[in-house]
# Entry
Amino acid sequence: MSTTATTATSVSLAVRDVHLAFGAHQVLRGADLDVARGGTTCVIGPSGSGKSTLLRTINRLIEPDRGDVLLDGRSVLRDDPDALRQRIGMVFQQFNLFPHMTVLRNITLALRKLKKLSEDEAVQVARAQLELVGLAAKADARPAHLSGGQQQRVAIARALALRPQVMLFDEATSALDPELVKGVLAVMADLSAAGMTMVVVTHEMGFAREVADTVAFIDRGVVLEAGEPAAVFETPEHPRLRRFLSQVL
Amino acid sequence: MDPLSTLWETFFDWDSMREALPEMLTVGLPNTLILAVSAALLGSVLGMLLAIAGISRTRWLRWPARVYTDVFRGLPAAATILLIGVGLAPLGMQVWGPNPYPLGVLALSLIAAAYIGEIFRSGIQSVEAAQLEGARALGFSWGEAMRLVIVPQGVRRVLPAWVNQLIALIKDSSLVYFLGLVASQRELFRIGQDYAATTGNESALLLAGLFYLALTVPLTHAVNWIDRRLRQGRSVAVAPDDADDAGLALAGETGLPTTGRRDPR
# Structure
């Protein structure tokens, strides 16, 4: 399974000093994140640490109170958020496929309505994308008739069909039965190897170690430590990272 | 004559029924259907606007929708039909002349809109927030996401309630007789009542009742059928055949997110 054909020109991504509060609850307190052009950064940390929220500030599903998000060094906070999100693909824990549409339609919808492709062109792109995640045979099925792993691969295909420059993964395998995780991680690893700029929020430490070029540890809304996987996993410096790793490894 | 046969002739006088039948078929039935269906269509369009306004973040949309719904759901249908049919008659006079029929449709539509708006609103609000987030993440605006993703799912979920409203409309369409329709505009109830008045028995009215039942009972069963179908999804539950990926997901077609577990049933 290769996803090479899906990679558009990738960009570098930087998150600078992002703050966000939900009412009195301070979720992000100056989070920083760097992803090199074509790089993969895995974000790890305890639940409630702000991982998913941080991810959502990158494509502005949630607007940060303060701080900046840069693609190739240029702030995206003044861009039209809808146009920005077409450049940044996102994959969710619960897949968020549209249950009332076939797999194919899930993928062609944005191609037709946003990219203004003709029906034929959209179908062609969608089928090619499904082929790449190994689900060409499921084009006419409804999402509910697929396994969780298959649904997640469709969700990845749906995001990739728009030729994004960055891909965000929000605990993409957390809702999957254990035997289905591998197939989804394989697609993600392929995509990373193909040079997609990716931010992966994950509990899969094995994946972070093998696929990421940077691992960032976030706790209480701040990235406390970031570096190469070997350094983060073998010689963690921050005591809270050490405690976290002792709990999950 | 003994009371039993009097009773029988009051309700089952075949001659009265036979006399009324042609007009029931050629005038009453078409008019009832026109009133109910056009009010259902107009009421659904207005109801959708009310539903969207009702969930708007702008209070200047939410509030009027709320007040409208409270008023039109709270008034007796007969009162609303009279108020609109008579009250707006001078206005209607200028637009389409002395014809109460369009005002009857309008009144029925305005009442239906209040109920259908609530039905649509509850359906739309039952769609998981994750669906909106998924659509927004692809780059759809809020309006596009609502139109393409959220509303179609929400409406599907409340189709049974919507059909129930159609049944109510078929019955309520009888109330437009208040507005004084000309002969060719009479719907089932009015024709039944007119024949009952001239024949001196209720048989024609009973016949009208049978016509209503012929319309509403199948719809009631259609509701149950749609409901069952939405609950269970289509009968096929395809087992994924990929070797790498052997889990089953059985969420049916009700749009519930699945995590690969079987839903409790």
